[in-house]
Write a structure and sequence with these properties.
Elements: E1 11-14, H1 18-29, E2 34-36, E3 43-47, H2 51-61, E4 70-72, H3 79-82, H4 88-97, E5 102-107, H5 114-117, E6 122-126, H6 131-140, E7 144-146, H7 160-167, E8 173-176, E9 187-190, E10 197-200, H8 206-212, E11 219-220, E12 245-249, H9 276-280, H10 284-307, E13 313-317, H11 319-328, H12 331-335, E14 337-341, H13 348-364, E15 369-373, H14 380-391, E16 420-430, H15 436-451, E17 454-456, E18 462-472, H16 483-493, H17 507-512, E19 515-518, H18 521-530, E20 538-540, H19 541-547, E21 552-553, E22 559-560, H20 572-597, E23 599-601
Helix pairs in contact: 1-6, 10-11, 13-14, 15-16, 15-20, 16-20
Bound molecules: threonylcarbamoyladenylate (TXA) and magnesium ion (MG).
């Protein structure tokens, strides 16, 4: 389905701005689409009685129109206007779990447009418990049809920024209600028959439902067999998929899982810091259990790297696993690993809460593979594994659905969105600083701008500004850059070297930089020889690649090092070729440079 931007910018509304909330509700009643927070995930809401508005939602999501939307309400009294009958079974579940993370499927009333239910004669009804959702839905007054606010096929958004990432320009406004508490979508229960059928597992578990039923049990919807129409049409499509390949790392049998019956966390990822120091305090049994949980991550990572030394691996894991990695102190393994830590390793409630944002975060780091912690428990583990299984492409129960969407452009955050900012800087060095190192500086600046903003890897909620400069070992100060190189860089990036003046490298310049990269090996050796105390931050492009395990081979399988001949005195084509080669190398090294500085994209 074609997506077309409708707005220059989507308005971001603060949840305590009552005037803006009422304005958003009015726009919704007038046929606009509004992103809003709920305790499960963010929704993309519109008037459920307005077929044209529903079409806009499908368009903004890029979702096939045969997948019905859930009707959201702010008041239980609205249910009777949406459904034709409330069976005693439905009533029991409404009384027990609404408001909360559950959607109850009932026979629909005529007032709900066919577009909302994709032509089905049933409708899913949900009353969120999130206070902002509740207030907004009350202001709307009409039933609000809303799917999760992600681009179809992508992980559902559990924060306003992720909604903006997928929807900026496609919808009128987004209400920012902070992090979603559960992080997984509601439990969908079909109550049109005699026994409830769980179509999609969620935070309201089978055990929760069974506990309020007399003489019956909820049924888990089984796999879709043959040509049988799916009962919950959404189940046949590719879902929750990040761009990277996801693999599940099994939790060893018998591991005691916590947070499994979580009806409610505190809405935040637990601040479970766990360090190498804490590792030492573990008893032998605890340490053994931890190693058993960590081993699949480590073994699989090493296997991936031995197959391809360029593999970039994302880990969705607990804080103890990261501590085990830190203790291993395997430089190459760490250089290739990006962490997203959800909290305590065995806490499935934290893992659920952070899953979708974690997949999105690791995607932004452009990892190739995501290794994610699996849980083998009951309750919430079932919902977590259901989503993770789909993200991992474990689609036995699915018929072929949508192809993976292209990576959309990211929405940069202003740096003042963070409570604090760190800085880091990289210096490029060659001999004269009028050609190659200046070219590296200009190219790196473009890359840095393109990938902004950054966050600190060591400190939560802290932005990271990255600077880049260049200098020459034997340079004269104040010379203009080589005009041929200037032209080549301009042809390559649209911007030349104009603002870069040559200067002589010196200890003060080395001091201000956290990473020093020379164009040729001899230049790095010369710096280290003169200033051995800074050897840990000085590399040539080639030794930096090697230090990160990047073994490059040419077409005949020979190991190559990065060599960049000086194009001085050659023709323009040679300059252009050199600039292109440097650009290609820097693009390969870019994620490792970020990692070395202690920053991640966000
Ligand atoms: O937590 C949630 O449920 C979130 C928030 C925004 O409320 N919403 C959500 O909506 O996840 P969506 O559209 O992404 O997923 C709704 C699921 C789909 O799998 C859909 O097929 C199923 O519910 N569904 C909706 N109406 C149905 C119906 N009448 N019969 C069977 N399944 C239905
Ligand atoms: Mg969805």
């Amino acid at each position: 389905m074609d997506r077309e931007k409708k707005y220059k910018k989507t308005i971001l509304i603060e949840s305590d701005d009552d005037v803006a909330l009422k304005d958003a509700a009015e726009h919704l009643r007038n046929g606009e689409v509004i992103g809003f927070p709920t305790e499960t995930v963010y929704g993309l809401g519109c008037d459920a009685g307005n077929g044209e508005a529903v079409k806009k939602v499908f368009e903004a999501k890029g979702r096939p129109a045969d997948n019905p939307l859930i009707c959201h309400i702010g008041d239980k009294d609205q249910i009777k206007d949406i459904v034709s009958e409330i069976t005693p079974l439905a009533q029991t579940l409404i009384d027990a779990f609404m408001p909360g993370p559950i959607t109850i499927v009932m026979k629909k009333a005529d007032s709900i447009s066919d577009e909302t239910t994709a032509g089905l004669d049933t409708v899913g009804v949900r009353m969120p418990s999130h206070p902002v959702a509740n207030k907004f839905l009350k202001y709307c007054g009409v039933p609000v049809a809303a799917p999760s606010a992600n681009l179809s096929g992508r992980p559902s958004p559990t924060g306003a920024r992720s909604v903006l990432e997928d929807m900026d320009g496609y919808i009128y406004a987004i209400i920012d209600g902070g992090d979603s508490e559960f992080g997984l979508e509601s439990t969908v229960v079909d109550c049109t028959g005699t026994d409830p059928v769980i179509l999609r597992p969620g935070a309201v578990t089978k055990a929760d439902i069974d506990s309020v039923l007399k003489n019956k049990e909820a049924v888990m919807a089984g796999s879709l067999s043959g040509k049988e129409a799916p009962r919950s049409p959404g189940m046949k499509y590719r879902h929750y998929a990040p761009y990277a390949q996801v693999e599940i790392m099994e939790m060893p049998e018998g591991t005691k899982i916590t947070g499994d019956d979580a009806i409610g966390t505190d809405g935040k990822i637990a601040d479970a810091k766990f360090t190498i120091e804490d590792l030492k305090k573990l008893s032998d049994d605890e340490a053994k259990e931890l190693v058993n949980i960590a081993s699949p991550f480590i073994l699989r990572s090493r296997e991936l790297l031995s197959k391809n030394p360029f593999t970039r691996i994302g880990l969705y894991c607990g804080s103890e696993i990261k501590a085990v990695y830190d203790k291993l102190n395997d430089k190459i393994l760490s250089a290739h690993t990006e962490f997203c830590v959800y909290g305590k390793t065995v806490d499935v409630s934290c893992a659920s809460h952070g899953l979708f944002e974690g997949l999105r975060f690791l995607d932004v780091q452009e990892v190739d593979v995501i290794l994610a912690q699996g849980f083998n428990g009951e309750g919430l583990s079932v919902a977590y594994m259901n989503r993770l299984g789909k993200a991992a492409g474990k689609k036995e129960e699915l018929t072929p659905g949508m192809p993976a969407p292209a990576r959309p452009a990211r929405t940069p955050l202003p740096i003042d969105a963070f409570k604090d900012t760190f800085t880091g800087s990289v210096l490029f060095v060659d001999d004269n600083n009028i050609s190659l190192s200046a070219c590296c500086e200009a190219l790196m600046r473009r890359m840095l701008e393109k990938n902004e903003p950054y966050i600190s890897n060591s400190e939560a909620d802290t932005g990271f500004e990255i600077y880049c400069e260049s200098a020459g070992l034997t340079a004269m100060d104040g010379l203009d850059p080589d005009s041929q190189m200037d032209k080549a860089v301009r042809e390559l990036t649209g911007l030349g070297l104009c603002s870069i003046e040559s200067r002589r490298a010196n200890p003060a310049i080395y001091d201000c930089n956290d990473l020093i990269l020379t164009v040729r090996d001899e230049q790095a050796f010369a710096i280290i020889k003169a200033f051995p105390e800074i050897k840990d931050k000085v590399f040539s492009l080639s030794t930096f690649a090697a230090a990160n395990g990047l073994v490059m081979k040419d077409s005949s399988g020979r190991v190559m090092s990065i060599s960049v001949p000086d194009p001085s005195g050659e023709n323009y084509e040679t300059y252009l070729h050199t600039a292109k080669a440097l650009n290609a190398w820097l693009e390969i090294l870019f994620p490792y440079i970020l990692k070395d500085l202690g920053a991640s994209r966000v």
